């Protein structure tokens, strides 16, 4: 784990924190002394297993089932986190995903709106709830989940996904300007090919191999590769870093 992060006693809320990149972030923050609340939507078994694992290790952790696209639910998530662990110091808005691939001319308005809800609205609502707590305290850190798709347009049939992730990259900069004067930092991460269930579902072995061959580091990333960057951005080690979206893709973004 990265050193000098000074996260002991901090309260972290991670949306979509049961598995994949979110799960790696949950473990990383807990290992560095933070108190962690994380949400999950459908991964109940993974969430309960992770919660049990970390509690057995003596960590302060709460798993919360939640639909992060619903304003009332998001408010309740923050209430549960703050009641159980204290005011949220760090938000990692990770929840989201590619619902299904669809060419633009074949994309229904329902799919378009669902992509916006799952990726963009969930991020907005989490940020809004976090800032309601952070602004009066004039402190806090937010990290948002964008994607390489925000910069290269994504793979085939992912224009709706890429659009939402591009919006999140812009939202990072807008929020950083808005809340920076209050002492609150906002940054983002934009992963490329990371070895998670996302690519098991939405990619093919041939597609993954071709991407690796185009990647300067010649490998897929791991959830831990992303979690370590999130950890750094959330920590005092990044105290003069705000409004940045860090691409984590083994150099693929240069091509």
From TrEMBL:
Protein family membership: Belongs to the short-chain dehydrogenases/reductases (SDR) family.
A Pfam family reported for this protein in Swiss-Prot or TrEMBL: adh_short_C2
Record keywords: Oxidoreductase
Protein name per UniProt: SDR family oxidoreductase
GO molecular function: oxidoreductase activity
PANTHER family for this protein: BLL5898 PROTEIN, OXIDOREDUCTASE, SHORT-CHAIN DEHYDROGENASE/REDUCTASE FAMILY (AFU_ORTHOLOGUE AFUA_5G02870)
Domain Ketoreductase: 10-197
PROSITE patterns, sorted: ADH_SHORT
InterPro entries listed in its UniProt record: KR_dom, NAD(P)-bd_dom_sf, Sc_DH/Rdtase_CS, SDR_fam
Organism (species): Microvirga aerilata
This protein's record includes keyword Oxidoreductase: yes
Superkingdom, taxonomy of origin: Bacteria
